Amino acid sequence: MFRTTRVVDENGNITVQDPPIARLLFGSTLMGWVWLVVRLFLGYQWLEAGWHKVTDPKWMETGVALQSFWQRAVAVPEGGRPPITYDWYRAFLQALLDGGHHVWFAKLVAVGQVAVGIALILGAFVGIAAFFGAFMNFNFMLAGTASTNPVMFALAVLLMLAWKNAGWIGLDRYLLPVVGTPWPQPEARARGAEAKV
To answer: Pick from 39, 101, 131, 191: most CB atoms within 10 A?
Structure first.
């Protein structure tokens, strides 16, 4: 079940093939239905998290909501543990606070959450949307906020791994062939070789 095979091309390059379970999960359109459920759940979470922010002046005008979050995150209590474990991340947030960057950064967070949610729900560029969602979750966790972030991060990583088939029941079914992939498909290479003969 977990046996892998190696394929050697004409130049001697070895390609290690994925085991069947990985091909099923991350390459088969049959799994598109499973990834649809994951996408809709995660997309709804992001849309809900961002929607109240884009309609709140504390996020979209003054950024004071993000400023308060950052201030709580960088605070070091006298007798307890600070919310942020890594000093370099605390220093990063403190620099953003000192520079007054919360005003524009709050807008970026709010609009980013809505954009990730919409992209996941529609199944448009799922791998990219999942990456940015995971990046936000990672930063929230670094800031000391667990909440739903670990689960959302794990689901986003799975969607990144399934980028080829996670949007099959969605816009990616039509977008990815138009945009193409960063490498030639085996069928295209074979057709190209036939054309040269």
So the answer is: 39
